[in-house]
Amino acid sequence: MDSHRAKALALLCFLALPGLSAHAAGKTPADLVVVQQGTLPIIITAPHGGREAIPGIEPRQDRANVATYRKWGGFHQSTDANTDILAQGIAAEIARLTGKQPYLVIAKFLRRYVDANRPPELGLDSQAARPYYDYYHESIRHFVDEIREHGPAGLLIDVHGQSKGPEVVMRGTINGRAVERLVRRAGEKAVTGPNGIYGQLEANGFKIFPANDVPLGGRNEDGSFIGGYTLFVYGSHNRDGIDAVQLEFGSQYRAKDALEKSIRNAARAIVAFHEAYLKQPADR
Fold it and tell me: Phi and psi dihedrals of 277, rounded to 5?
């Protein structure tokens, strides 16, 4: 074997090593976004749990004015720890319980390179990062359109993590706007009632803030966690949207030794909500 072929073979073996960074190996948008076709009218998204660098992209810098970022929850580079595991685990458990798959879109790229829960002018600095951002959102848009085409109702669940209230799951519906269609069809009980999405989360052991006896609307939800760009774009206050909620899991529920329980309980809650309000929505 000549020296050129030997060097080429050595390089190929090196690139195949597990755990090699995206900077070294190179990753396409499809490599850095988990996309799963579903058979249930439920989409689970997670924009901030990614762990991988994007090749050739520098970390984002806070170049916009503070007021612009504040509208969307501020400038952050940190990861929502274990929300990727949480989202994938919930999807797998829902499939185990029902025999059907939810749709799934999860960013594998680190938030410091692309923030997929911000508008593009804030979510990325370099146009070289745009294909990764676009692939994430084009996947969600395709799934939203598919659910709207094939059924009368659906739910997008945007999974996040927060440490302000470690023991709570923050309710995020843009103070009711992102679930307008669900509330119009079935009332607030479909959100906070016994079989509502947050009611079932409470029934399965999660503490909800604001509490489920606090009505939707006004400014009852914590202003930092009411829902970000994903809910703003895809929520049912848009003519081309579906009902959408943001689940901000406190750090207590995302701890390594709590993940299995959190996954199991969240999946049970979502399945119960599906049975009550999505499986036969015309009858509710």
Answer: -130, -10
Could you tell me if residue 205 is left (phi over 0), alpha (psi between -120 and 50 degrees) or otherwise beta? Answer: left
Whole-number Å distance between alpha carbons of 118 and 73: 9
Cα distance between residue 93 and residue 148, in whole Å: 24
Contact by Cβ (8 Å): 188, 212: no
Element at 85 (helix H, strand E): helix 83-98
Q: Is 56 exposed, middle or buried (0-12, 13-18, 19+ CB in 10 A)?
A: exposed
Spatial distance between the Cα atoms of 113 and 126, rounded to a whole number of angstroms = 9
pLDDT of 54: 95
Contact 134, 105 (CB under 8 A): no
pTM for the whole thing? Answer: 0.89
User: Cα–Cα distance between 218 and 264 in angstroms, integer?
Assistant: 32
pLDDT in tens, 209-235: 999 999 999 999 998 999 999 999 999
Give the SS3 label for residue 126: coil
C-alpha distance from residue 97 to each of 87, 91, 100, 101, 267 (Å): 15, 10, 8, 10, 8
Asked if 209 and 222 count as a contact pair (C-beta separation under 8 A), the reply is yes
Q: Distance (Å, rounded) from C-alpha 144 to C-alpha 27?
A: 26
- Helix 83-98 crosses helix 259-273 at what angle (to 10 degrees)? 50
Q: What is the pLDDT of residues 171-215, one digit of tens each?
A: 999 999 999 999 999 999 999 999 999 999 999 999 999 999 999
Q: Are the C-beta atoms of 169 and 253 separated by less than 8 Å?
A: yes
160 bridge partner residues: 248
Q: What is the DSSP pairing of strand 168-172 with strand 243-250? A: antiparallel
Q: Are 68 and 245 spatial neighbours (Cβ–Cβ below 8 Å)? A: no
**Domains in the chain, please, with CATH?**
22-283 (3.40.630.40)
